[in-house]
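COURSE: Structural Biology Practicum
ASSIGNMENT: Worksheet 4, Part C
STUDENT ID: 0417
INSTRUCTIONS: Below are two proteins. For each, the amino acid sequence is given first, followed by its structure token string. Answer the questions at the end about the second protein only.

PROTEIN I
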Amino acid sequence: MKKGIHPKYTDATITCVCGNVIKTRSTKKDIKVEICSNCHPFITGEQKIVDTAGRIESFRKKYSGVETKKKK
């Protein structure tokens, strides 16, 4: 390997919004995530809606008066 072209690989802490903290190694020191292996819906079996910046509410507000067409 060439010297001086690779970033430093140091100890890192990954912090999830659920409070889970994972110690690992990375080129970044602190990493913050919204979903981790402890709170992911596939692992827990529970559906969790992650709403960033009110996207779900704006979608429901926009399409609240629209009715779906029924097939005959």
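PROTEIN II
(use this one for the questions)
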Amino acid sequence: MQIFLILQLLILLAVANGTPVLAKTILGDRLARPLDGGTVLVDGRPVFGPAKTIRGIVLALLATPLAAALMGLPWRLGALVAALAIAGDLFSSFVKRRLGLPSSSMAIGLDQIPESLFPLLAARLFVPVSFLDVIVGVAIFFAGEIVLSRILFHLNLRDRPY
């Protein structure tokens, strides 16, 4: 198991997932256009909801490759991690809307697994991580996100605790 590499990948995941939260804290509603444009599907629910913004996605796609490069990793790895963390987050939001859960609501597992599993599996294209490394990374991300979300909520950087 390559704990240093796993930690680097977890930092990239934190950048990809944290950048939109930080942008919201700093910018408020400025430039926060919902990715789905407010589109409602035949079930009467939004595609993703108002919390998934173009601003957050663009900033995550810019910040994560930069973070990768600063850590000595390929910037393309950072771009891949960001893109697939976003895809996992959008997948989770889509499923939660279909289940009738409101935007920014908690769904243990659904909120953490896709946005960490997708990018960690894809990282294998750039760095030598095993399936065990991926499982360990997902487990650490899962626990870390739950703890960090509560801390960010208490610091008023997050709207709801997880």
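ANSWER KEY EXCERPT:
Q1: Helices lie at 3-27, 54-70, 75-98, 113-122, 131-154.
Q2: Residues 147 and 162 are 8 Å apart (CA to CA).
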